[in-house]
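Lecture notes, part 5. Sequence design as translation. It can be helpful to think of inverse folding as translation between two languages: the language of shapes and the language of residues. The source text, in structure tokens, appears below.
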């Protein structure tokens, strides 16, 4: 079933479908993480229905974001989201396989991705193609994703992604193998006492070694309610 929602009352509208990619906290966390500058050219790898691209434009309206998405139905919703918000000149979707060099090489200052978290043989296999693609690396491996980001970025450009904390060593190895150096790391925890399950990472193409580890992002306050930072990430301060 198709749905329509807003980032905040009177804000941008986004479309999604239950059978494709539903909005997730992970996407909102990543949307708040990259350092953005006016006029920046951005690419989103595995763009889904365009929510992450829209979140970036909500923070910096002068971006140009180009998404690459394999599934035609998701790409169609991405384009409709751009049209409904009058962002056709800022938000574009290329339909196809990100491994096939659809993006012009060395053109983008920032690449972003909310990739599948699990290897193709990990756990139960989702029954439909959309959920299978979103959950596991059945169509694109982590190494292939990193290689695609490296090709698309300018020298010194950044690649930001959200990923499973337990796969951090593998992620770092893939990035370094593609000439990208991990530079800024933030772990995501449910509470201050909980072990992190997710990480937010920025890597730089051609960057020098040296990793800045930021304070953890806590999703819950000590009383169990939504943290003030998560509330801002969800634009509740605009309600």
């Amino acid at each position: 079933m198709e749905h329509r929602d807003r980032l905040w009352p009177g804000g941008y509208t986004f479309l999604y479908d239950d059978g494709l990619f539903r909005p997730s906290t992970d996407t909102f966390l990543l949307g708040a993480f990259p350092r953005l500058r006016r006029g920046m050219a951005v690419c989103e790898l595995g763009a889904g229905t365009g929510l992450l691209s829209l979140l970036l434009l909500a923070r910096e309206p002068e971006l140009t974001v180009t998404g690459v998405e394999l599934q035609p139905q998701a790409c169609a919703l991405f384009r409709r989201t751009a049209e409904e918000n009058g962002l056709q000149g800022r938000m574009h979707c290329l339909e196809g396989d990100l491994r096939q060099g659809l993006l012009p090489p060395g053109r983008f200052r920032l690449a972003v991705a909310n990739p599948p978290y699990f290897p193709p043989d990990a756990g139960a296999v989702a029954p439909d193609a959309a959920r299978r693609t979103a959950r596991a690396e059945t169509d694109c491996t982590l190494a292939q994703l990193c290689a695609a980001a490296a090709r698309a970025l300018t020298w010194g450009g950044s690649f930001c992604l959200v990923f499973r904390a337990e796969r951090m060593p593998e992620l770092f190895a893939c990035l370094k193998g593609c000439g990208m150096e991990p530079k800024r790391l933030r772990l995501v925890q449910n509470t201050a006492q909980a072990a992190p399950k997710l990480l937010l990472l920025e890597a730089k193409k051609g960057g020098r070694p040296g990793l800045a580890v930021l304070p953890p992002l806590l999703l819950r306050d000590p009383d169990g309610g939504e943290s003030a930072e998560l509330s801002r990430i969800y634009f509740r301060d605009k309600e």
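The translated text above is only one of many valid answers, since several sequences can fold into similar shapes. The first strand starts at residue 2 and ends at 6.
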